[in-house]
Design brief:
two-stranded parallel sheet
């Protein structure tokens, strides 16, 4: 999606020439607009949630609503994302988290065009995920509560009840997972007890990096395309938490956690070895080196590559980088990147 890589490159210090090249590269893969079967209006817009054929109609609808509201895009986002009995914010991890990522960039760039696209993505990818946040009955006391996400991931990895569930990895496994093993997923989801939100969100960001990097052996041909979405959605939440209504802070983080569990299981629960980050030699390389890889390497037009490096840099700036942990991750990622596996 052009706004995401363009925003990331810009915020990493890209010049206008490079941004134009990025746009040209991204434009090559864009699909032409298709007319929707009909229009969407204020009285029936929820009837078309989850129907991707109405993408163009939702763009037109939100643009009209923006004009009616005096072009205050943040008020528009407030109305459609955070208000009502089933607010759209509870389904932003649908569509592999792209609605959430786009919302994050809308707020980070303070851009109404990205915001309109984000709202349209949210409506078009709306699916079953929202029910787990809308309906509080899914939040239940845990038998084995813990404050550590990483410890739960290890429990999930060794949970024999999930053995043999899928023949291969891929996002298509997510819906099947909830159809077949919803109770087990929710058991692990509810095991994460949030007692110290700030510290635990910090750990969740480290977990996102671990899932991308520490699950991949040094001789791997690439990184998991679907696991990188856990990092970029986590970055979006880091952007959003200071800017959205406080009542949605914990639920948004828990929504990411449910998404993370689903993707981790769908990707066949690879083992996490933190030493793959902590033992990586920097050899004098710093964040300027990592930024250069994002903007000037042969992968500079790969949106997910650029976004991943920037997400790790921003996490380091947010939390501090004891022992250069995030930097080691970014250097290892850029050093060994040969592309993505599971990218189709």
């Amino acid at each position: 999606m052009p706004p995401q890589i363009l925003s990331s490159a810009y915020l990493l210090g890209s010049d206008s020439e490079h941004l134009n090249k990025v746009y040209d590269e991204e434009a090559r893969s864009l699909e032409p607009w298709r007319d929707s079967p009909g229009e969407v209006s204020k009285h029936d817009w929820r009837d078309y949630l989850g129907d991707q054929r109405y993408q163009r109609a939702f763009i037109d609808f939100f643009e009209d609503e923006l004009a009616r509201g005096g072009y205050d895009w943040k008020q528009l986002a407030q109305e459609f994302l955070f208000e009502g009995e089933q607010p759209l914010i509870n389904s932003v991890v649908s569509g592999l988290g792209h609605p959430l990522i786009h919302i994050g960039y809308a707020f980070e760039m303070n851009n109404c065009t990205i915001a309109i696209e984000a709202l349209a993505l949210t409506t078009c990818f709306y699916d079953f995920f929202h029910q787990y946040l809308d309906d509080t009955s899914y939040t239940r006391p845990a038998q084995h509560p813990t404050e550590s996400i990483v410890s739960i991931l290890e429990r999930v990895r060794t949970d024999q009840r999930l053995d043999g569930l899928f023949d291969h990895s891929g996002p298509g496994n997510i819906a099947l997972l909830f159809q077949r093993k919803e109770d087990i997923v929710l058991e692990h989801w509810n095991s994460w007890t949030i007692v110290n939100p700030k510290a635990q969100f910090e750990e969740s960001q480290r977990a996102a990096v671990l899932l991308l990097l520490a699950t991949v052996p040094p001789d791997s041909e690439g990184y998991d395309f679907f696991l990188v979405h856990l990092l970029t959605t986590s970055h979006a939440i880091r952007v959003l938490l200071p800017l959205i209504p406080e009542e949605f802070h914990v639920s948004l983080v828990r929504q990411w956690w449910l998404f993370t569990l689903a993707v981790y299981i769908a990707q066949l629960r690879p083992e996490i070895k933190e030493s793959r980050i902590t033992d990586y030699e920097l050899a004098g390389r710093d964040w300027k080196w990592a930024e250069k890889q994002a903007l000037a390497s042969s992968h500079a037009y790969d949106a997910h590559y650029v976004k991943a490096i920037r997400a790790m840099k921003e996490a380091a700036l947010t939390w501090g980088d004891l022992d250069a942990w995030y930097l080691r991750g970014a250097v290892r990622f850029a050093d060994n990147f040969r592309g993505w596996f599971n990218s189709s």
